Amino acid sequence: MSSIISLASVLILTVLILYLSHLFTKSLGNGIGMKRGGTCMQMLDRLPLGQDKAVAVIRAGSRYYLIGIASSQITLLAELSEEEVPKETAAPPSFGADGYENFKNILKKYTDRHKKDV
């Protein structure tokens, strides 16, 4: 009987730890690095080119810009028209500001895909 109780307590403790770690990572993600876009300005896309170098498309109000980012400076490369920016990039992202899906969406995709296998 004591082995069943200890097994149940370990199971409950494991579920509690997983839930608390989910809450912690969710709050950490909301506070750090996820607030890359405001109401007027937003980074729509970024392409790393090397160590500390990248190009990015940003939206400032209703204007779009292509910028070069280096460790020591940011350079305006071109102003883009709305037609030059792909529609899926021009729309605000539906999940994270960095373009990363949240854990719930990833888990749902994974479980839906593997339900078909069973």
What key phrases describe this protein's structure?
118 residues; alpha+beta; 4-stranded antiparallel beta sheet; 3 helices; 4 strands; elongated
Would you write up a description of this structure?
The protein has 118 residues and is of the alpha+beta class. Helix content is 40%, strand content 28%. It contains 3 helices and 4 strands; from the N terminus they run αββββαα. The chain has helices at 2-31, 87-90, 103-115, and strands at 41-50, 53-60, 63-70, 74-80. Strands 1-2-3-4 form a 4-stranded antiparallel sheet, with no helix packed on it. Strand 1 and strand 2 (53-60) form a beta hairpin. The two termini are 35 Å apart. The model is unreliable at 91-95 (pLDDT under 50).
Strand content range: 25-35%
Oligomer: single chain
Give a short account of the largest sheet: 4 strands, antiparallel
Distance between the termini: 35 Å
Shape: elongated
Low-confidence residue ranges: 91-95
Compressed to H and E, one letter per element, the order equals HEEEEHH
Strands of the widest sheet, in order across it, are: 1-2-3-4
Number of helices: 3
Mean pLDDT score, rounded? 79
Tell me the total number of β-strands: 4
Structural class call reads alpha+beta
- Helix-residue proportion: 25-40%
